Amino acid sequence: MSLPNKRGATAATASLALLAALATACGGPANGSTAAAFDPATCQGGTLTVLAHSGQGKFDPAQLYTSGGGKVPTLVFRTLTTRDHTTAGPDGAKVVPDLATDIGEPNQDATVWTYHLKPGLKFEDGTPIRAQDVKYGIERSFSPELPGGPPYLRDWLVGGEQYQGPYHGGGDLASIQTPNDSTLVFQLTKPEGDFPFLATATQFAPVPQAKDTGADYQKHPISSGPYEVVSNDDGKQMVLARNPYWSRSIDDQRLACPDKIVYTSGLDPSVINQRLLASSGDDARAVSGDTDIDASVLARLNGDPALRKRVAVGNFGETDYLAFNPKVKPFDNPLVRQAISYAVDRQSVINAVGGSAVAKPATTFLPDQAAFGYTPYDDFPAGPSGDPAKAKQVLAQAGYPDGLTITLSHSTTSVTSGPDVATAVQQALAKAGITVKLDPSSDDDYSTKIQTPAQEPGFFITGWGADWPSGGPFLAPIFDGRQILTDGNFNTAQLDDPQVNAEIDAANRLTDPAQSAKAWGQLDVELGKQAWDVPLFHPVYQRLFGSAVKNAYVSQWNGVYDLSRISVK
Fold first, then answer.
1. Whole-angstrom Cα distance, residue 568 to residue 42?
2. How many CB atoms lie within 10 A of CB 275?
3. Does some domain include residue 95?
4. In this structure, is residue 108 part of a structural domain?
5. Which domain holds residue 209?
6. In Å, how far are 149, 212, 497 from 133, measured between CA atoms?
């Protein structure tokens, strides 16, 4: 998913701007509850409050852009698979069964996937969950009336490109077969070893056709998870209460400790941190929904051990980087791209987004997590502050012994791709004899410009976040030549290399996670040598929680709290 204007809401860096004034005051992430163990004594009811800046939006499983994590939708919608909610840290990025008995049975080339539902599954009204309900839930996500979900199903399922959903006589999608009430068979257009990851998306949540109210379904979707929707103000304010037909005996992934969950949005990030810092009344049993700690919290961490214990630290698969368009001179010259790679001062960029407490330097495109296939490399080693002398040497080899002038496009307001980062890059490149002119655009205009090949600038700041922790949704959208689009394009280099495309296909065929990760890591190493981009940093997430909250940790799948594990006193 593209950053900063993501296609989905998998991660947020809402309060990074507030950290800029305190760049490296704490010298790194707090040693908070990064992998809190479950305490059975605290799993005894109560009300958990989630304080958020952004609303949930349309709370319809067809329209949500979320998968596998522990956000609010996971409390209401069970899916065929999910992330491992029982484990904090890197192992929590693994796929495990949810409604299904396993993570899926592929045929030999991973073009057919079969799932079997667990026995005893029920909706909130006590009716059984059937394979046909899962099929219907997926089919309705194709309807033009329900936009917003991820695009993979349309691309991956046979007939998906033309299918318009079951409304208006659209019929069913023949590539999803239900030979009986507990079996689903998916026919894919091409091998996809990552299908178990996709099956964590809310589009795989069962929807009973008789209860489908179309665009109004989001007001009261039928729960298959531990909580049902009591009230929903367009995703801005929501109240969830226990689903009486759910139990831990049929769901080993969600603890569902609180009796009630109240989601409140529209809050300023600073207000969220102030309320959690004070931790009084209901706020003692509250967590941040989408806001990182701000400067006021950071400034107190070293001197307040009790407060440090109320900060959860985690990572999400995201890389922010400088992008080149080789169709624009002089970026068609690999040596120019290499010279810029040597010249970049990553530490100054990290300081610009808030310091080492919230970001760590990146020299690889893949995030530094094993699930993605991370393989360390640094093809243009320049240390944390850049190597302007080496950059000048390579620039001379490129035919620019006296330096050159280029333009860097950036957003006007984004923290990660905005003026502060652009200025840091400008100052670093100046030391190497490269004059950088800055070209700012409003966020909406900027997104349109960098995602439209006909308008794409030669040099700009962007980022990519994972839809799930695998190399596939990270490298393919950026480097697969068959994914170059006339608009909404993320292949910034507009690279269409048959060899790269073939390696992407080969990696997609792999269904063993270890083999898949190795293949994506090898491809990342190969691509890195070409300097199609300059990785800058990977974000670090630090989030505060109330003093009466237990078992809080930040999921490495999506960088937010796993609400399904949290308990309150």
1. 6
2. 21
3. yes
4. yes
5. 55-263
6. 18, 11, 41
Residue 551 in contact with residue 44, Cβ under 8 Å? Answer: no
Residue from 298, 290, 397, 288 nearest 338 by CA: 397
- Residue 139 has which token pair? 């089919």
CA distance 87 to 83: 9
Structure tokens at 15: 């309060």
Collapse the DSSP code of 423 into the 3-class scheme (helix H, G, I; strand E, B; otherwise coil) and give the result: helix
Adjacent-strand bridge partners of 105 = 114
Q: What is the pLDDT of residues 20-42, one digit of tens each?
A: 333 333 333 333 344 455 667 77
Q: Is residue 182 part of a domain?
A: yes
Q: Which of 456, 509, 457, 462 is nearest to 484 (CA)?
A: 456
Instruction: Single out the residue of 418, 463, 458 nearest to residue 321, CA to CA.
Output: 463
Q: What is the spatial distance between Cα 292 and Cα 288, in angstroms, rounded to a whole number? A: 8
Q: Distance (Å, rounded) from C-alpha 403 to C-alpha 400?
A: 5
Any idea how long the chain is? 569
Q: In Å, what is the CA distance from 186 to each residue of 112, 146, 287?
A: 6, 22, 38
Instruction: Please give the single-letter amino acid code of residue 184.
Output: L
| 550 phi, psi to nearest 5 deg | -125, 160
Give 449: exposed, middle or buried? Use CB within 10 Å, 0-12, 13-18, 19+.
Answer: middle
- HSE-CB of 370 using CA atoms within 13 angstroms: 9
Q: Is the pLDDT of residue 221 over 50?
A: yes
Which residue is listed with tokens 């839930």?
137
Report the range of poorest mean pLDDT among 30-39, 208-217, 258-267. Answer: 30-39
CB 309 within 8 A of CB 548: no
382-394 average pLDDT score: 97
What phi-psi label fits residue 531: left (phi over 0), alpha (psi between -120 and 50 degrees) or beta?
A: left
Q: What kind and span of H or E run contains 295?
A: helix 295-301
Q: What is the CATH number of the domain that holds 155?
A: 3.40.190.10
Q: Domain total for the chain?
A: 1
Do 331 and 409 meet the contact criterion of CB atoms below 8 Å apart? no
Residue 517: pLDDT above 70?
A: yes
Q: Is 512 within the bounds of a domain?
A: no
Q: CA dihedral in degrees (143, 149, 151, 155; nearest 10)?
A: -50
In this predicted structure, the answer to whether residue 6 has a pLDDT above a threshold of 50 is no
For 468-485, write each residue's pLDDT tens digit: 999 999 999 999 999 999
